[in-house]
Design brief:
7-stranded antiparallel β-sheet, disordered C terminus, elongated, 36% helix, alpha+beta
Length: 203
Amino acid sequence: MPLHFNTPIIDEFRTNAGKLGGPFEGWVLLLLTTTGARSGEPHTTPLGFVEDGDRILVVGSAGGSDRHPDWYRNLLVNPTVTVETGSDTWQATAVAATGAERDALFAKVVAEAPGYADYQRRTDRTIPVVALHRIPEDTYTPPDRLDALADELVTIHNWLRDELTALREGIGDRTATGAPDLNRRTAPPLPDLLLGDGRPPRR
């Protein structure tokens, strides 16, 4: 959930396809939704940004405080994020820059938005710069689909375990009697599950 003071900004952003009025009139912002590092819940934050080729840069300034913002800590644990720019919503992989790359990107950001240099002077922490890399729609798997795939894999695992158990028992019977027990019940057939590409698994 967004922080209380961000709620009207987020609502206005979504109502007006990214256009804001009042004290934010003329500002170009994005909405970044991260997954809580501890709660697992979505958290949406309005942020300024700088375009850098086919990626977008956001800065964890937190107004120059000595503590990293929550959204930054979230994406370190869960780097898949949702980005809203104007009327467009898309998924991205968030990558925190380090070392010389971070310094170069921060200089690029400051060249376009000098206020970030003031934030850095207020704190001893190194203000992070994060690059948002857009995930092509045809390669993105929503979390609910990942849960479904996990359930399918568990079912397949259980089926294979039953098959191996039946095989071991059959081998034991053959060793003891010289012939397999044809009346022994074998594991049930693999259920018709759809895998990630929409095809049922091979039997």
